[in-house]
Design a protein that fits this description.
With 299 residues, the protein is α/β, with parallel strands linked by helices. The protein folds into 3 domains: 1-84, Multidrug-efflux Transporter Regulator, Chain: A, Domain 2, CATH 1.10.1660; 86-169, Methionine synthase domain (Methyltransferase, Methionine Synthase (B12-binding Domains), Chain A, domain 1, Orthogonal Bundle), CATH 1.10.1240.10; 170-297, Rossmann fold (3-Layer(aba) Sandwich), CATH 3.40.50. 57% of the residues lie in helices and 10% in strands. The chain has 13 helices and 7 strands. The strands form 2 sheets. Strands 4-3-5-6-7 form a 5-stranded parallel β-sheet, sandwiched between helices. β1 and β2 form a beta hairpin. It starts with 5 loop residues before the first helix and ends with a helix. 30% of the residues are buried.
């Protein structure tokens, strides 16, 4: 069982610690335990209860009313909210609650509802990416456990692969080839998978070379597949040395593919501007892809 301080509860729910103390004293809604040194701590059940109350109070329910409700009735209110409400990037609490409760069934239901209303691309960009950022920040601060972040990542992976499978059934293929890879120790796997989906949706051929592949094997993949473009992410400084080694290895290629790089350290590789282009954002990358499609379609 996980334990939380009142500061943890405040970070997770968005309710100030001072307010939580008032609620605890006035409404007796929490029953903290005590450590051997008499420090107060709270349980997973306390976190779930406060998370639910936070979501309902933000929708106009009075705390005085909620504290008088039986558990079953409060759960019914939460189910109605999370099942029927349209959630956007500014209202992520329903998704957050599902993650905290590790409730995959409800989380997937929320995703499917938003996909129907927004479309997969907008749902991913405006909901899942901000949610990932929020969960990552909460994990770094110690407010949530690694399992919560991993729970979210695994569900998103499944949805992305499902979306890719749909695109793979389409027959219109453009004469454009992308090779996607990640240098060792990079963690942008979700970004890579979404990029693969975005490319396939446009009818572009994609080879996923994976991560932790050495530069010699990557060179052989480029020779065999002959892509016009290679895309990757460089958030770790160590990735620059890997990219430099790869560029030396592929220097003898007659038709060297353009290397499209995104990430914090991508700018450091602009010295290779003859074969490297830096993309400041995913939107910029998509704009670039849109410019090459009409050209390739004419050939």
């Amino acid at each position: 069982m996980a334990v939380y301080s009142i500061t943890d509860l405040a970070k997770l729910t968005g309710i100030k610690a001072h307010t939580l103390r008032i609620w605890e004293k006035r409404y007796n809604i929490l029953s903290p335990g005590r450590t051997a040194t008499n420090m107060r701590y709270y349980s997973d059940d306390d976190l779930r209860k406060i998370s639910g109350i936070a979501m309902l109070t933000q929708r106009g329910y009075k705390i005085s009313h909620l504290t008088e409700l039986p558990v079953e009735e409060m759960e019914s209110l939460l189910a109605n909210v999370t099942d029927s409400e349209w959630i956007n990037a500014e209202s992520l609490d329903a998704f957050t609650l599902c993650v905290l409760q590790l409730d995959e069934k409800k989380f997937v239901h929320l995703l499917d509802t938003n996909i129907e209303q927004l479309g997969f691309d907008e749902m991913f960009s405006n909901i899942l990416m901000p949610l990932l950022d929020k969960m990552h920040s909460m994990w770094l601060s110690g407010a949530i456990k690694k399992i919560h972040q991993e729970f979210l990542i695994q569900i998103i992976k499944k949805k992305l692969y499902q979306a890719i499978a749909v695109e793979d059934k389409k027959t219109q293929i453009l004469p454009i080839k992308f090779l996607i890879f990640l240098p060792p120790r990079e963690t942008q796997e979700l970004s890579c998978i979404f990029l693969i989906y975005a490319l396939k949706k446009k009818g572009i051929q994609v080879l996923d070379a994976g991560s932790d592949i050495n530069t010699i094997d990557l060179y052989h993949a480029v020779v065999a597949y002959d892509p016009q473009f290679i895309a990757s992410f460089v958030q770790e400084k160590s990735s620059n040395a890997y990219i430099e080694d790869f560029l030396r290895t592929t220097a003898d290629l007659k038709n060297h593919p353009i290397l499209l790089l995104s990430g914090y350290y991508a700018q450091d590789l602009m010295v290779h501007q003859d074969v490297v282009r830096v993309m400041q954002s995913f939107d910029e990358l998509e704009d670039f892809i849109s410019t090459i499609i009409p050209f390739s379609s004419k050939n």
